[in-house]
């Protein structure tokens, strides 16, 4: 075979392979937006249901969209990480209420969205209150109190409380700043991290990327906890 003929054969084979790869990508479950089970369909749905404007500058679009899908459709993160049921939905947008109080169209309250402050009360009387944390990004653009992705991953994998807000009480004592034995105060209580720890690294990365893209809420959690998320 001549050199020219050899190179023509290689080029033709490469072109055919490229066509096959493109066809596979288009027909695969992850590559088709019209497939309701594809990743791209979930990404598009994530953007469609995001209740707040998103900052995509410098961020991975696919991860942000998938993160929104996981946060707003698969999980009910705002159900815990808002100030509570009374403020989680905008006026007229609470689907748990009857018409005409409910307008017929669900609408999340953007002023409290994932800003934390939901007081679940103490685990036992007179012990520390468990209050949901602010998940919105701080002035540096990092979500959940300014934690890095590696820290966020550690939180969801192990449940560690980076803020150490309610350590285990000593002995049989009970106080407003600790949780009673045998509760492990080094870990987040109430938050379902034992379920979230089973998620893939990519899913957790998508959630982190989405939380980085939402608007900051400068929430001050009062009472036993004094947490502030600085937006500027």
What does this structure look like?
- The chain has 232 residues and is mainly alpha-helical.
- The chain folds into two domains: 1-30; 33-228, no CATH class.
- It contains nine helices and four strands.
- The protein has helices at residues 3-27, 39-49, 61-74, 77-80, 85-88, 143-146, 149-158, 193-196, 201-213, and strands spanning 119-122, 129-131, 220-221, 227-228.
- Strands 1-2 form a two-stranded antiparallel ribbon. It has a two-stranded antiparallel ribbon with strand order 3-4.
- Strand 3 (220-221) and strand 4 form a beta hairpin.
- It is globular, with a radius of gyration of 23 Å.
- The protein starts with a helix and ends with a strand.
Short description:
Helices cover 38% and strands 5% of the residues.
Cα-atom Rg, whole angstroms? 23 Å
Beta-strand percent range: under 5%
Count helical runs: 9
Query: Could you name the ranges where pLDDT drops below 50 across 5 or more consecutive residues?
Result: 1-29
Kindly state the percentage of residues in helix. Answer: 25-40%
Helix-strand pattern: HHHHHEEHHHHEE
The number of domains is 2
Distance between the termini: 69 Å
Q: What does the largest sheet look like?
A: 2 strands, antiparallel
Strand order of the largest sheet: 1-2
Number of strands: 4
Gross morphology is globular
Please tell me the overall pLDDT: 84
- Decide which structural class fits the backbone: mainly alpha
């Amino acid at each position: 075979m001549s050199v020219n003929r050899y190179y023509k054969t290689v080029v033709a084979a490469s072109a055919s392979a490229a066509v096959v790869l493109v066809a596979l990508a288009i027909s695969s479950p992850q590559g088709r937006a019209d497939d309701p089970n594809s990743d791209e369909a979930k990404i598009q749905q994530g953007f469609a249901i995001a209740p707040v404007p998103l900052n995509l500058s410098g961020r991975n679009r696919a991860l942000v969209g998938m993160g929104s899908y996981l946060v707003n459709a698969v999980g009910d993160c705002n159900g815990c990480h808002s100030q509570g049921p009374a403020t989680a939905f905008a006026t007229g947008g609470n689907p748990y209420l009857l018409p005409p109080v409910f307008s017929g169209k669900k609408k999340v309250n953007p002023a409290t969205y994932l800003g934390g402050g939901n007081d679940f009360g103490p685990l036992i009387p007179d012990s520390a209150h468990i209050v949901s944390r602010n998940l919105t990004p701080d002035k540096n653009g990092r979500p959940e109190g300014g934690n890095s992705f590696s820290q966020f991953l550690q939180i969801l994998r192990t449940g560690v409380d980076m803020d150490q807000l309610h350590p285990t009480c000593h002995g049989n004592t009970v106080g407003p700043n600790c949780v009673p034995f045998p509760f492990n105060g080094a870990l987040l209580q109430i938050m379902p991290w034992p379920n979230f720890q089973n998620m893939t690294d990519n899913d957790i990365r998508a959630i982190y990327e989405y939380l980085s893209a939402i608007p900051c809420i400068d929430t001050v959690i009062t009472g036993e906890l004094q947490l502030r998320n600085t937006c500027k």
